[in-house]
C-alpha cells in the first residue's frame, strides 16, 4: 500500500481544487458577465413632425425587466400615459410628438421597468398601428408598425324582440350604420320585425372595425317589406322599383295653390311655437282639392302617420321619394303603381295643421330637397346585369330574414 507524504498530498489537493471548483466558478462568473453586459449601438431613424431625427441606443447594462399589463379604459395620448408612469420628457418637440399619438381605449398596454424606472410602454394607437416607446439613458425611441387591414362583406340576420337599435348593436353594428338604415327605412321597426342586412367592413388585425358601410337591407315589419341595396360601383341605394324606372314626367306641384311656407332650415312652427327645420313646402288649397302624384312610382305608405295625419309616400326609383301630408282622404294603397298626375288623395287638415293645406316633401336617399327647385335625374331602366344582381341580393336577404323567423317560431313551439 502506497502512502502519500504530506507535501504530495497538498499538491494533489490543490490540483483537484483548481480542476473541480475554481475553474468552473471562473467559467460561471465569466458567462454571467457576458449575459449581463450588452454592448449594442443601434441607430434607428424615424420621421418626426418637423425633421428626420436619429436616436442612438447607447451601451447599457441591463437587469432582468419587470413587465406588467395595465387596462386603459379610455383613449389617452402617449405623453399622458408616459407621464403617469414617471417618464420625464422635457424636450418640446418630443412632447409635441407624443401628444399627437393617441392610444386606443379599452385595451391592455404593456409597461416594462428596470430598477423601478419605466423603460418601455407599448400598445395600439387609434388608427390600429402598434406603438412602442423605449426610454434609455434619458433618450426616447419610438417604433411604430403599419396596421394590417382586412376587408369583408358580412350578412346579419335577426329578429326584433323589443328595441330595434339594441338588436343591431348586439350584432356589432355601429350607431352611424344604424342611423343610416333607419333613415332609409323611414320607420323604426318594433317587436316582431325580422331583418337581414349586408355591411362592408374594414377591420384591423385584432378584429376592431375601422370603417363600416351599409350595402343593403331587407326588413319585414307590420305586413310590409322594405328592401334597398347598392350595386357594384353604385353610390345610390336601389329597390326593386328601380328595375322598371323610366320616369319621363315630373310635376313640380302636386296641387294647385299658393305656397304659404317654403322649404327652410329654420322655421317658427305655427302650432308648437318654436323654430325647427321645415323640409317641405306648404301649399294652401280648398278642403277636398285633389292631390296628384308628381311622378310615376310605387306607393310605399298610405294611412295615418301621427302629426302628419293622413299621409302617402311614393317611391319613384333612383332613391327619390315624395311625401304628401295632412290629407282628408287617401285614395291609394301600399304597393299600388301610380302615374304622373294620378289622384292619390285630397287636401285636408288631419294631424297637426292650422287649416286646409298640403305639406309636400321630396327626398333623395333620405336627404330632403326643396320641391320647387328639385330636378329629378331621370335614368333609363337598369341593365339586365344590374337587374339580375339586384334581384339576387333581394332574394338572399329575404330568405335569410325568413329563415330566422321560421327558426324562432319552431323554438317557441318547442318551448
Could you explain how this protein is built, in words?
The protein is α+β, with helices and mostly antiparallel strands. It has three domains: 53-144; 149-241, Nuclear Transport Factor 2, Chain: A; 258-369, Glucose Permease (Domain IIA) (Distorted Sandwich), CATH 2.70.70. The protein has six helices and 28 strands. The protein has helices at 6-36, 78-84, 92-99, 164-170, 175-185, 384-414; strands spanning 37-38, 42-47, 52-57, 60-61, 66-72, 76-77, 102-103, 107-114, 117-124, 130-136, 139-144, 149-159, 194-204, 209-221, 224-230, 237-238, 258-261, 264-268, 275-278, 281-284, 290-292, 297-304, 310-317, 320-330, 337-338, 343-347, 357-364, 367-369. Strands 17, 20, 21, 22, 23, 24, 25, 26, 27 and 28 form a ten-stranded antiparallel β-sheet that branches. Strands 5-8-9-10-11 form a five-stranded antiparallel β-sheet, with no helix packed on it. A hairpin with a 2-residue loop joins β8 and β9. The longest helix is centred in the N-terminal third of the chain and has 31 residues, at 6-36. The protein starts with 5 loop residues before the first helix and ends with a helix. The model is unreliable at 37-62 (pLDDT under 50).
Work out the helix count: 6
Structural class: alpha+beta
Number of beta strands: 28
Write down the domain tally: 3
What gyration radius follows from the Cα positions, in whole Å? 36 Å
- Low-confidence runs (pLDDT<50, min 5 residues)? 37-62
Please give the largest β-sheet. Answer: 10 strands, antiparallel
Strand content: 35-45%
Distance between the termini: 98 Å
State the CATH architecture of the largest domain: Distorted Sandwich
